[in-house]
């Protein structure tokens, strides 16, 4: 994967960075660490500049996250009712938990979106519930952009200072990503086995 990313960055420049970062947030197997790290290497080599690199990477990140936010927005919380009613057992969720998440995003949506930007596997997923619970567009874009900018500064700075050694990160990203996904699957299976509904599973009772 490293060679493919390097070739696209060298061919597309900042546009290549923006495209890769957008795709990374739509198809998470493409690692942002590698993309921005290589961009940082190019800055250290004098082939790119840091400011436009960070701008391109952050714009691409926001676009990729907005894709999932838009899907969540179009679906909306109320359209979850038939899904919870029909697949509550498989999803291991009750409607009261959906309402709880809704209240959580209304109160702390900015913090959730911001801090999840630094968590593997979750930094893209968080955009979907943000859209489902209709977090404001401007709030979502601002806090996603802020978190993405900080994360990209860290990655690009690391690439610039570590130089060509940063490319070896691809050797570790695969196992780390696999481990993270494996933990998520294990947690889900554990919850599925132990889950017992104890309230309104159908979502028929509306809360004002």
UniProtKB/TrEMBL annotation:
GO cellular component: plasma membrane
Record keywords, A-Z: Cell membrane, Membrane, Transmembrane, Transmembrane helix
UniProt keyword Cell membrane, yes or no: yes
Cell compartment(s), UniProt: Cell membrane
Domain called VTT: residue spans: 30-159
Transmembrane segments: 12-30, 51-71, 112-133, 140-166, 172-190
Membrane topology: Multi-pass membrane protein
Keyword Magnesium part of the UniProt annotation: no
Pfam family, one: VTT_dom
Designated name of the protein: Membrane protein DedA with SNARE-associated domain
Species name: Sphingobium jiangsuense
